[in-house]
Structure formats: structure tokens, C-alpha cells
Design a protein that fits this description.
- By secondary structure, this protein is an alpha+beta fold.
- It has four helices and seven strands, in the order ββαβββββααα.
- The chain has a five-stranded antiparallel beta sheet. Strands 1-6 form a two-stranded antiparallel sheet.
- The protein starts with about 25 loop residues before the first strand and ends in a 36-residue tail after the last helix.
């Protein structure tokens, strides 16, 4: 008996992944921001994230592991040994099939959703680096305007000062619709 397997359709390749065999520079802050850490700690975070990790670039020659997160979501991160590359920076991105001699390659290839959730990544980076967590980054608050997609009324993540006579703390909106490049 002969079994015939249907060919799976090819996974869509993000437009920012280079075609060919060589890595190419790509602008950060357009499709994503890049978050890098040293190689050993990077693999500890990859292990902790598991299936929650999006695409990851490894560069053992320069002792770096790099995640891609939505543009603007890693701005202001201050963790020991962690570097965030946003608007104005470039990142060398490897092709899907680099040359055998290339050291820059995908530790986790880009899939249908190649970006890593910035909150999950931040949480694990805090643990691995021993850094002090910023509660604004770990917040899950979204303003009601964003749920309604009414951006004219949205506060764009700005928070009024909490009056000293109250214990209510207002948090900034951290939904993905507040990307700096969109002017929202």
C-alpha cells in the first residue's frame, strides 16, 4: 500500500526576511524593535518562554540573542545587559537558509506570528538579569477608548498625576494601537 502525503503550503515569509543566502540590514522601529541579550542568558529566556517565543536571531560570534517585538513596545526598558534597538537603529537579519559558514542565523525561525509578546519577554528578562521590574511595562490595562477603537478620545497612554489624597493609581494604556510611527 502506498501512502501519498499532501504537500503543505509554504509558510508566508515576512517581507523583512532577506531573500538569498546573506544577512541584510533592516530598519528597527518599522516592523519591529529588537531586544538583545548575551547568548547564555538569551537561551535561558528562550527555554523559559518556550512556545511563547516568536522568532529569535542568534549571533554566537558577537555573544547575542535577539527577539523581535512590536515596534515601540520595548521603548524605555532598563534592564542590565539588555539592549533595545528601536527607531533609528538597524539590525542584521539572516535569511531563512543562510550559508553553512554563516554564524548569524535563526535560533527560532519566523513563523506565522514572528513577534514575541513584549510583556512575556520582559518578565523573563527581569528574572534572568535580576533587574528591577517596571510595573508600567507589566501592566495589562487598556483604556476604554482603545476597546472601542475611538482613538480621537484616547489618551495615547498618557496618565494624569495621581492626586496625593487618593490611593487610586491610574495606569497608562499599553495596547498595541499606540505605536509612535502611527501618530496615535
Amino acid at each position: 500500500m502506498t501512502t501519498v502525503q499532501a504537500a503543505l503550503p509554504p509558510q508566508p515569509v515576512p517581507v523583512w526576511v532577506p531573500v538569498g543566502y546573506l544577512a541584510r540590514p533592516r530598519p528597527c522601529g518599522r516592523y519591529w524593535d529588537a531586544v538583545t541579550i548575551n547568548y547564555i542568558d538569551g537561551y535561558r529566556v528562550i527555554g523559559a518562554l518556550g512556545a511563547a517565543s516568536g522568532a529569535v536571531i542568534e549571533d554566537p560570534e558577537n555573544d547575542r540573542v535577539t527577539w523581535l517585538v512590536h515596534a515601540g513596545t520595548a521603548a524605555g526598558w532598563d534592564l542590565p545587559g539588555v539592549t533595545v534597538l528601536g527607531h533609528g537603529h538597524t539590525l542584521l537579519v539572516p535569511p531563512l537558509e543562510p550559508l553553512d559558514t554563516a554564524t548569524l542565523r535563526w535560533a527560532i525561525r519566523p513563523g506565522p506570528d514572528p513577534l514575541t509578546c513584549h510583556r512575556a519577554l520582559y518578565e523573563h528578562l527581569v528574572v534572568v538579569t535580576g533587574g528591577r521590574p517596571d510595573p508600567r511595562i507589566l501592566s495589562t490595562y487598556t483604556s476604554p477608548e482603545c476597546l472601542w477603537a475611538d482613538h480621537d478620545a484616547c489618551t495615547k497612554g498618557e496618565v494624569p498625576a495621581t492626586p496625593p489624597t487618593t490611593t487610586v493609581v491610574e495606569e497608562p494604556c499599553c495596547c498595541r494601537c499606540h505605536r509612535p510611527e502611527d501618530g496615535r
